[in-house]
TrEMBL record, chain A:
<feature type="transmembrane region" description="Helical">
    <location>
        <begin position="317"/>
        <end position="340"/>
    </location>
</feature>
<keyword id="KW-1133">Transmembrane helix</keyword>
<dbReference type="GO" id="GO:0015658">
    <property type="term" value="F:branched-chain amino acid transmembrane transporter activity"/>
</dbReference>
<dbReference type="Pfam" id="PF02653">
    <property type="entry name" value="BPD_transp_2"/>
</dbReference>
<feature type="transmembrane region" description="Helical">
    <location>
        <begin position="129"/>
        <end position="149"/>
    </location>
</feature>
<keyword id="KW-1003">Cell membrane</keyword>
<dbReference type="GO" id="GO:0005886">
    <property type="term" value="C:plasma membrane"/>
</dbReference>
<feature type="transmembrane region" description="Helical">
    <location>
        <begin position="423"/>
        <end position="441"/>
    </location>
</feature>
<feature type="transmembrane region" description="Helical">
    <location>
        <begin position="161"/>
        <end position="184"/>
    </location>
</feature>
UniProtKB/TrEMBL annotation, chain B:
<comment type="similarity">
    <text>Belongs to the binding-protein-dependent transport system permease family. LivHM subfamily.</text>
</comment>
<feature type="transmembrane region" description="Helical">
    <location>
        <begin position="277"/>
        <end position="305"/>
    </location>
</feature>
<keyword id="KW-0813">Transport</keyword>
<keyword id="KW-1133">Transmembrane helix</keyword>
<dbReference type="GO" id="GO:0042941">
    <property type="term" value="P:D-alanine transmembrane transport"/>
</dbReference>
<keyword id="KW-0029">Amino-acid transport</keyword>
<feature type="transmembrane region" description="Helical">
    <location>
        <begin position="364"/>
        <end position="381"/>
    </location>
</feature>
<keyword id="KW-0997">Cell inner membrane</keyword>
<dbReference type="InterPro" id="IPR052157">
    <property type="entry name" value="BCAA_transport_permease"/>
</dbReference>
Length: 485, 395
C-alpha cells in the first residue's frame, strides 16, 4: 500500500520509480500472452516453447498478486488475466483451457487437504477417496452403464447437477466423519497409514461392487467395477450461452470447431474457478477463526490443547469433514466434465499427487496450495509430456544436440519423461522435505515452527557479528608492536 | 574409519561358555517360539475357518452376499482345504514376518514408519531375478546345486538392499532427524516413489522388460511336487521359503539379543539421549538398523519372488502395507510381535483367499480389503498391538 500513498493525495502524481514493478509485470503478462498467441502447433519446437511459455503465463497472477499495489487493482488485473486472456488462449488452443481447469480442480482439492494436513496436522494419505465419493455419486446416478440405478429407473436428470453438487459435498463430509471417528485416537503416522488403508478400501470397493467379473453372479451392479462408468452427463446450459460464445469467438476472429464443446469447457473452467475461489475463501476465513486456532492448537500439541479446553473430537471431525467436502464437490464436477470415471482415477498415486501439491506449496498455506497446484499439475500434465513430445519430434528429423554432439535418435525409448512422474514426484518430495520443508510459499507461522523444530531458528547473523568481537591471531601479533611506542 | 574401528570393538563375544546353553538359548528357544506362533496363528485361523464354514454351510442368515451356491457344503470344503490353507498361510506369513521386521526395527529405533521399506523389498525381488538371469546366461542355473542358487540370490539381495537402505537413510532421513514426525514420513513416501520408477527405468534400459518372471521352472528341484498327504501337495519352494525365513528370524534374534551391537540397538530404541551418554554411537546403531532391516527386506523379496514367480517394479506396495499391518498387529517396535503378526496375517490372507471364491457375491477382488480392515480394527481396539506395551505420551 505504501507505494500508492501519493495517489491518495488530491493531485495524483504517479511516482514512476515505485510504479515500475507494476509496469514490468503488466508488460510481462502481455509479452508472454502475445508470444503464446503466436505459437504454432506445426513448429518443430512448439512443445518446448509451450512448456516454457504457458507456465510463465499461469504464474503471472501470482506475480501480480505479489505487487505492492492496492488489492482492488491487483484483483482487477488478475481477473483480466483469468477471465479475458485465458479464454482467448483457450479459443486458440483448447488444451490450455483443459490444463487450467485441471489445475483449478487440483488446487481446490489441495486446499481441502490443506485443511486436514496443514491446519489440523492430520496426515491423510487416502484423500482421493473423498474425491471418489463425489465422482461416483454423480457417476452412478447418471451413467449409461447398466447399474442398479439405471435398472430401477432412479437415474438423475441432468438438471439435478446442482443438487448433486451439494449432495456430493454432504456425502463426502459424512464419509470424512466416518473415517475420522475410528482414527481419532491415533497419532500422526498411524493415522497416515490408516487413511491410506481407507483410501485403498474405497478403491477396492468401487472396483468390486458390480456383477462384471468372471465367475461372479452378484445381482447388484453399483459401480460397474473396474470398467468404470461411461456416459456421465453434464448439466444443461441455456441456448443463449452457446450463441453468446459463438458470437464472441467470431467477433474475436478465433472461431472454434465445436461451439458446444467449447462452451462446456468455458463453463467448467468458470465453475471450477468459482469453486476453487470459494474453497480458498472458506479455508482462509476458517484459518482466522476460533476453529482455525483450535486446529492449530491441536496440531502443535494435542494434550495441551485439550487441557486448555479445545474440543478435540469435534475439531478433528470438523477438519476431516471440511477437507473432504471440497474434494466431494470437485469429484462431482470431475465426473461431469470427464463423462467417465473408473477406479484408476482414484489410486494411491493420486492421493500422493495432491499431497505433493500441499507439500510443494507449503503446509497450512492456502496461496501455497494454489501455487503448488500450478507447479505440480503443470509439471505432470504439461512439462513432462511436452518433453516427450519434443524428443519424439526431434527424433523424427534426426536432430543432433549441438555442443555434446549427441544424436537425439540415441535417446532410449524407455526414458520418456512423461512416464516417469513417480520418479519426478518422489524426488520432488524428498528435495522439498530436506531443503524447504515449509514449501515454496509457506504460511508464516508454519515456517517458524519448522525452523524451530529443526534447530534452524533464523538467527540474525549481523547482530551476532556486532556482539562478538572477532580477534584473529595476526591482529594480536600486529597490535603488540604498535602499543609499545 | 572410526566406524570400522567401532565395529571391531563391538565384535560379538559368546556370553556362554557352555555350547549347550548357547544352542538352547539362541537356537532352540527362538525356534520353539516360532513354532508356538505357527501353532497359535494356524489354530486360531483354522478355528475361525471351521466356525465360518459351519455357520454358513446351510443357512446364510438372510444376508444375501453370504449366500453359498446350493450344491456346495461350505463346511466340507473348509475341512478339505484346511491343510493347504495352513501351508499357504504359513509360507506367505513367514515372508510378511521378515518384511515386518524391517518396519518394526526402524520404528523401534527412530519412531518413524519407513515407507520406503516396501520398495527395498521390491528391489530384493528384482535382484533375485537378475541373479537368476545372469546365472542362466552363464549356463550355471541348472548346473549349480539349486540351494546354492537360492543362497546366491538371497545373499546378493541382502547385500545390495542393505546398502540401498543405508544410502536412503543417509540421504533422505538423516537430514530430517528432529523434524516434526510427518516430515520424514513424507520424505519416505518420496523415496518409495523414486525407487519404484528408478527400478522400472533401470530394468527398462537394462533388459527392456517390465515383468520379471522368476525362472523357477528351469530348476526342476523347485517345481517338483511333493505329496505330503492325501490332497495336500506342495513344492520344495515352500520348504525353502519357510527354512530361510526361520534361519533369518533366529539369526536376527541372536543378533539383537546376544551381540553388543544388538544391545546398542536396543538401548538406542529405548532412549536415544541416554544411550549416547553411555557411549553408544547412535548414528552407527541407526545405520546398522537400516542395514539389517534392508537386508531382511531384500531377502524377503527373493522369497516372495520364489513364491509368486512374477515380479514387477510395482509389487512392493501391497505386501509392504500388509507387512506393516503385521508389524502393527504384533505391536510395532516389538521384534517378536512382528513374527506373530506376520504369521497371523499370512494365515488370515490364506483363509480369505480360500473362502472368498465360495461366495459368488464377493469374489477374490475383496481379499486385499481384509488386511486393511484388520489394520484399522487393531488400531481401534488395541493400538499397541498384540504384544506391544502401552507407551504414555509425554507432555
Amino acid at each position: 500500500m505504501a507505494t500508492y500513498t501519493i495517489s491518495e493525495n488530491k493531485s495524483p502524481q504517479l511516482n514512476w520509480r515505485e510504479a515500475l514493478p507494476t509496469i514490468f509485470a503488466i508488460a510481462y503478462v502481455l509479452v508472454v500472452f502475445t508470444l503464446l498467441r503466436s505459437l504454432s502447433r506445426t513448429d518443430l519446437w512448439f512443445p518446448t516453447y509451450s512448456a516454457i511459455l504457458f507456465p510463465m503465463f499461469v504464474f503471472s497472477p501470482f506475480i501480480i498478486f505479489a505487487l505492492k499495489i492496492p488489492l482492488e487493482l491487483r484483483a482487477v488485473l488478475i481477473a483480466i488475466i483469468g477471465l479475458v486472456l485465458m479464454p482467448i488462449l483457450g479459443m486458440q488452443d483448447s488444451f490450455y483451457l483443459e490444463l487450467i481447469t485441471q489445475i483449478a480442480i487440483f488446487a481446490a482439492m489441495a486446499i481441502g487437504l490443506n485443511v486436514v494436513v496443514g491446519f489440523a496436522g492430520l496426515l491423510d494419505l487416502g484423500y482421493v477417496a473423498f474425491f471418489a465419493v463425489g465422482a461416483y455419486l454423480w457417476g452412478i446416478f447418471t451413467s449409461n452403464a447398466n447399474t442398479i440405478v439405471r435398472a430401477t429407473g432412479a437415474q438423475a436428470a441432468p438438471e439435478m447437477f446442482w443438487l448433486f453438487l451439494f449432495l456430493g459435498v454432504i456425502a463426502a463430509a459424512i464419509t470424512g466423519i466416518l473415517l475420522g471417528l475410528p482414527v481419532l485416537r491415533l497419532r500422526g503416522d498411524y493415522l497416515a497409514i490408516v487413511t491410506l488403508g481407507f483410501g485403498e478400501i474405497i478403491r477396492i470397493l468401487v472396483s468390486n461392487l458390480s456383477n462384471i467379473s468372471s465367475n461372479r453372479r452378484n445381482p447388484i451392479n453399483i459401480t460397474n467395477g473396474a470398467q468404470g462408468l461411461p456416459g456421465i452427463v453434464s448439466p444443461p446450459l441455456p441456448d443463449f450461452a452457446f450463441q453468446a460464445v459463438e458470437g464472441l469467438t467470431n467477433a474475436l476472429g478465433l472461431p472454434v470447431n465445436n461451439v458446444r464443446a467449447f462452451t462446456y469447457q468455458l463453463f467448467y473452467y468458470g465453475l471450477v474457478l468459482l469453486v476453487c475461489g470459494l474453497a480458498a475463501l472458506i479455508a482462509a476465513r476458517l484459518d482466522n477463526s476460533p476453529i482455525g486456532r483450535a486446529w492449530t492448537a491441536i496440531r502443535e500439541d494435542e494434550v495441551a490443547a485439550q487441557a486448555m479446553g479445545v474440543p478435540k473430537v469435534k475439531m478433528k471431525l470438523l477438519a476431516f469433514a471440511m477437507g473432504a467436502s471440497f474434494a466431494g464437490a470437485m469429484g462431482v464436477i470431475f465426473a461431469a466434465r470427464n463423462t467417465f470415471v473408473s477406479p484408476e482415477s482414484f489410486s494411491f498415486i493420486q492421493s500422493i499427487f495432491i499431497l505433493a501439491i500441499v507439500i510443494v506449496g507449503g503446509m497450512g498455506s492456502i496461496r501455497g496450495a494454489i501455487l503448488g497446484a500450478v507447479i505440480v499439475t503443470l509439471l505432470n500434465l504439461q512439462v513432462l509430456k511436452n518433453f516427450s513430445l519434443q524428443i519424439n519430434a526431434l527424433k523424427n528429423i534426426d536432430w543432433v544436440v549441438p555442443i555434446l554432439n549427441f544424436p537425439i535418435r540415441d535417446w532410449p525409448q524407455q526414458l520418456e519423461p512423461a512416464r516417469y512422474e513417480r520418479f519426478v514426484f518422489g524426488l520432488l518430495l524428498i528435495i522439498m522435505m530436506i531443503f524447504r520443508p515449509s514449501g515454496v510459499w509457506p504460511a508464516k507461522r508454519r515456517q517458524m515452527e519448522l525452523q524451530e523444530a529443526m534447530g534452524k531458528e533464523e538467527i540474525p547473523e549481523k547482530e551476532i557479528e556486532a556482539d562478538v568481537v572477532v580477534i584473529k591471531p595476526e591482529d594480536l601479533l600486529s597490535q603488540e608492536p604498535k602499543e609499545k611506542p | 574409519m572410526t566406524a570400522i574401528s567401532d565395529l571391531a570393538k563391538l565384535t560379538p563375544r559368546d556370553l556362554f561358555n557352555n555350547v549347550g546353553d548357547w544352542v538352547l538359548q539362541y537356537v532352540l528357544k527362538p525356534i520353539g517360539q516360532i513354532l508356538l506362533f505357527v501353532v497359535i496363528a494356524g489354530s486360531s485361523i483354522s478355528l475361525l475357518a471351521l466356525v465360518v464354514g459351519f455357520v454358513l454351510q446351510t443357512d446364510w442368515h438372510g444376508i444375501d452376499i453370504l449366500r453359498v451356491p446350493a450344491r456346495i457344503n461350505l463346511f466340507e470344503q473348509v475341512v478339505r482345504q484346511l491343510p493347504n490353507m495352513f501351508l499357504d498361510g504359513i509360507t506367505i506369513g513367514f515372508v510378511y514376518a521378515v518384511i515386518a521386521l524391517g518396519y518394526t526395527m526402524v520404528y523401534g529405533v527412530l519412531k518413524f514408519i519407513n515407507f520406503a521399506h516396501s520398495e527395498i523389498f521390491m528391489m530384493g525381488a528384482v535382484i533375485g531375478y537378475e541373479v537368476m538371469v545372469r546365472l542362466r546366461d552363464g549356463q550355471l542355473l541348472t548346473t549349480l546345486p539349486p540351494l546354492l542358487v537360492i543362497v546366491l540370490m538371497i545373499a546378493a539381495a541382502m547385500v545390495i538392499c542393505g546398502g540401498v537402505a543405508v544410502i536412503v537413510e543417509r540421504v533422505a532421513y538423516k537430514p530430517l532427524r528432529g523434524a516434526p514426525r510427518l516430515v520424514p514420513l513424507i520424505s519416505a513416501i518420496g523415496v518409495s516413489f523414486f525407487l519404484t520408477d528408478f527400478v522400472r527405468g533401470f530394468q527398462a534400459l537394462n533388459r527392456n522388460i517390465f515383468n520379471m518372471p522368476y525362472l523357477t521352472d528351469q530348476i526342476p528341484f523347485l517345481t517338483q511336487r511333493i505329496v505330503l498327504a492325501e490332497g495336500l501337495s506342495t513344492t520344495n519352494t515352500t520348504f525353502i521359503i519357510i527354512l530361510s525365513a526361520v534361519i533369518m528370524l533366529v539369526g536376527l534374534n541372536y543378533f539383537v539379543n546376544a551381540t553388543k551391537i544388538g544391545k546398542g540397538i536396543r538401548a538406542v530404541s529405548q532412549d536415544q539421549a541416554t544411550a549416547s551418554l553411555m557411549g553408544i554411537n547412535v548414528n552407527l546403531m541407526i545405520t546398522i538398523t537400516f542395514m539389517v532391516g534392508g537386508a531382511l527386506g531384500g531377502a524377503a523379496g527373493v522369497l516372495y519372488g520364489l513364491k509368486t514367480t512374477n515380479v514387477t517394479p510395482y509389487i512392493g506396495f501391497i505386501p509392504g502395507l500388509k507387512a506393516f499391518t503385521a508389524a502393527v498387529l504384533g505391536g510395532i517396535g516389538n521384534i517378536t510381535g512382528a513374527m506373530l503378526g506376520g504369521l497371523l496375517l499370512g494365515m488370515l490372507e490364506a483363509f480369505f483367499s480360500a473362502l472368498l471364491p465360495y461366495f459368488p457375491a464377493l469374489g477374490l477382488g475383496y481379499s486385499d480389503i481384509f488386511a486393511f480392515a484388520v489394520l484399522i480394527l487393531v488400531l481401534l481396539f488395541r493400538p499397541t498391538g498384540l504384544l506391544g506395551k502401552k507407551v504414555d505420551e509425554k507432555v
